[in-house]
Amino acid sequence: HLQFISLSRNSHPASRIISFGILWFFITLSVESSIIPIRDVIFEHRLYLPSVGVVIAFSSGVLYGISYARERLDIKVSLLLATCILLLVTALPLAIITYKRNFVWRDEITLWEGVVGKSPSKARGYSNIGKFLQDRGRFGESIMPLQEAIELNLNYPEAHNNLGNAYNNQGQTDEAIQEYREALRQKPDYPEAHSNLGVAYAKKGLLDMAIEELKAALSLKSDYLNAHFNLGLTYQRKALKNEAIMEFKEVLKIQPDYIEVQKIIESLSKQ
């Protein structure tokens, strides 16, 4: 603050521009800051706008320094040449860092792998790698990072649920049920885990238990399309035609253009 006051009182034009750059940095950063606790304390995008002030202050400082050296120290060097050398020395390392950073930001998986590289003892990075691998259909590959996340944080219902999804996709239904149950033990009001557990029970032929879990999911999230759909399928397996049609109609309320469900309703109505 004392440096800012000193610069702002200096009559040299460059000092005022440097002061403006510093002021810009803190004012724009204050917009991105908050006294409310947030999950991501450090985030690159919060510095995009404030960094303009750093560039302004730095550039003005460089030009001011070169002018001072030429006038006071009798250094015989062209202002343009000196500026180019300093900018090159500064810009080259930044360009290399930016080039490397672009590889980290290539997609969600590489981004969270970068997070894990910097914070290997934090469970969230491993859990998100597992989640995004599953989003790409790579369920087998997602098992290891999700297990790592759970090792680092046993009380992590989302990781247990996603690990259950990986096991379920790989045909390991018993292991999946165990993970879903653990997720629900930690977080009883978790609709996705209830729904997934219901699907796993249905795979095992435990249809009444499946219906119970799917209903629990819908009691927590009434517009849960997948839960309505799977509940309809489970009713259909139990030969409860009317209940099945009712659930499939709920699916169409949420997604009217669901052709497969329209065909199922038509087929059931003819029976």
Key descriptive features of the protein:
single chain; 271 residues; mainly alpha; Serine Threonine Protein Phosphatase 5, Tetratricopeptide repeat; 3 domains; elongated
Description:
With 271 residues, the chain is mostly helical. It has 3 domains: 13-36 and 44-71 and 80-104, no CATH class; 107-188, Serine Threonine Protein Phosphatase 5, Tetratricopeptide repeat (Alpha Horseshoe), CATH 1.25.40.10; 207-270, Tetratricopeptide repeat domain (Serine Threonine Protein Phosphatase 5, Tetratricopeptide repeat). It has helices at 2-9, 13-32, 50-72, 79-104, 108-118, 123-135, 139-152, 157-169, 173-186, 191-203, 207-220, 225-237, 241-254, 259-270. The radius of gyration is 30 Å and the shape is elongated. The protein starts with a helix and ends with a helix.
SSE order and pairing:
Elements: H1 2-9, H2 13-32, H3 50-72, H4 79-104, H5 108-118, H6 123-135, H7 139-152, H8 157-169, H9 173-186, H10 191-203, H11 207-220, H12 225-237, H13 241-254, H14 259-270
Write a compact overview of the structure shown.
With 271 residues, the chain is mainly alpha-helical. It has helices at 2-9, 13-32, 50-72, 79-104, 108-118, 123-135, 139-152, 157-169, 173-186, 191-203, 207-220, 225-237, 241-254, 259-270.
CATH superfamily placement of the largest domain: Tetratricopeptide repeat domain
The structure class reads mainly alpha
Biggest beta sheet summary: none
Q: Tell me the CATH architecture of the largest domain.
A: Alpha Horseshoe
By DSSP, the count of extended strands is: 0
User: How many H/I helices?
Assistant: 14
What's the number of domains? 3
Q: What's the overall geometry?
A: elongated
Assembly level: single chain
Residue fraction in strands: under 5%
Provide mean pLDDT, rounded: 84
Task: Extract low-pLDDT stretches.
Answer: none
By CATH, the topology of the largest domain is Serine Threonine Protein Phosphatase 5, Tetratricopeptide repeat
CATH class of the largest domain: Mainly Alpha
